[in-house]
Structures are given as structure tokens and as C-alpha cells.
Amino acid sequence: MSKNLTATLKLNPSDLLITLNSKLSECTNSVFFGMNALETTTELPDSLSLEDDSIFMQTPIGKLTLDQSKQNFKHWILKKGFEDLISALTELLISFSHIIDLKEKIQKNNKLTLEKIKELIFETNDSNSTKNFPSLIKKVEGSLKQPLTYKSEVETINRVRRCLVHRNGIVRPTDFNVQNGLELKWWFLKFKLTNNGQTKNLERFDIITSETKMEMDDTPKSKLFTENQRVEFNYQEFNELALFCQRFGIDTLDKFKLS
């Protein structure tokens, strides 16, 4: 005699953030490696040979000076970095979208066998992979308990990515999101130390004692790029953006609901 069982779909929060954290880690490390290569490279070889006995010498299509090559590589690193930031967030939203789809399938078939539930869980679903970043945000927003805290800021990151990919980082009117240019916005947590009544931002090698008071200051940050200006960033700013993308993921997870 068969029994009716009740199944509850639950999230494992840490699992949902694994891919995001992994991709952001790879991204920041790659950008760091590239920036270090820019500083330490002092000469370029005439050619590269991929195999010891290769009869072909591997050379670039266009020959550039060392300074030109460094500048070109710097722009390429930045473009790839922003692509990876949005790629990490996109994969996160695809994961949420897959759970949303699974919930809808289960709700449409409220009496399922255990085997059928397993089948639905592992069923191939590539439909979300074809959606663009704004469409995925819109889909996930419909399953949140509260509005996303950092939606508008993340949208500016994607807008900068589009400029880097499609216009080589040169801002044109089509990129504008404010009247006079392209504005990128994010938030960064600054730590402040107070010792003997004096307050300062936490810096490397600062000494913290039992008398030290520490506070976190959530600081809004922005950069504005005007028409025909090239998008430029240093590593500190890029790292702040990666940490901010991590916060977006945590905020989305905290507000996601299954019921």
C-alpha cells in the first residue's frame, strides 16, 4: 500500500554562491597577474615557438612597441575583467532562475512520485542560458521578498562592460546613463579605527589593541566617463567592484523566496 509523502524544496545557501565566489576569485587573480605583468615586463621577444621543432615562428599580426603593447594589454585586461564580473553574476542569476522553473514545475504537478521529482531536478534546462543579464534580473526579481538593494549599481557595471566590449572602452552617447556621460556606481565598506579619540581609515600594518574601536562605513562610490573618454580603472577600484558583486549575490540570496 503506497503512502503519500510531503516533500519540501529547500535552498543550500552556500552552494548557490560557490560559482559566484569562484569566478570572482579567478577574475581578480587574473587581473592582478595581468597588472603585475605590465609592471614587470621590460622587453618583448621577437617571436614565440609553440613547439621545439616547429617550422613556423609565432609573431603578432601587427608589430607594436613595448609601450603600445602594454597599453593595448591594459585595455584588454580591463575588458576581460568586466566581462568576467558580469559572467559571474549571470551564472548566479541562471542558478536562481533554474530553481524558479523547478518550483513552477512541481507546483503544476502537486502529486509526484519520488522518481519524478528527481527527474525534474536533474532535467536539462538551457532556456535561462539564452537570456541576457537584464532579463535574468527581471525574472529573479519576481521571486524576491524585497527589492534588490544594489540593482541600479550592478546595471551600471553591465553598461560599462558593453562600452568596453562594443566600443573598445571609448564612451559614446549610446552609453550614457546620465545626462553628461556614463556613470559607474558601487558601494565599498571602509573600516575606521579610533584610538585616543582620533579616527582614521584602516590601513595596512595598522596596530589594533583592546582599546581600539572599529567601525564599518558603507561608502557610495562612482566614476563618470564623458563622451569620447576612455574607460580606465586601477586594480584597487576593480577589486572593490568584485567585492561589490559578491555583496549583490549575498543580497539576492537573502531576499530569495521559494514559497
Textual characterization of the structure:
This is DZIP3-like HEPN domain-containing protein. There is one protein chain. This protein is mainly alpha-helical. It has a domain at 13-41 and 64-173 and 228-255. The protein is built from six helices and three strands. A three-stranded antiparallel β-sheet has the order 2-1-3. The longest helix is centred in the middle third of the chain and has 43 residues, at 66-108.
Quick structural summary:
With 259 residues, the chain is mainly alpha-helical. The chain is built from six helices and three strands, in the order H-H-H-H-H-E-E-E-H.
Q: What low-confidence regions span 5 or more consecutive residues with pLDDT below 50?
A: none
Order of helices and strands: HHHHHEEEH
Shape: globular
Instruction: List how many beta strands DSSP finds.
Output: 3
Specify Rg, calculated over alpha carbons: 24 Å
What amount of the residues lies in strands?
Answer: 5-15%
Q: What's the rounded overall pLDDT mean?
A: 86
Please, how many helices?
6
The spatial strand order of the largest sheet comes to: 2-1-3
Provide the helix percentage: 40-55%
Protein name: DZIP3-like HEPN domain-containing protein
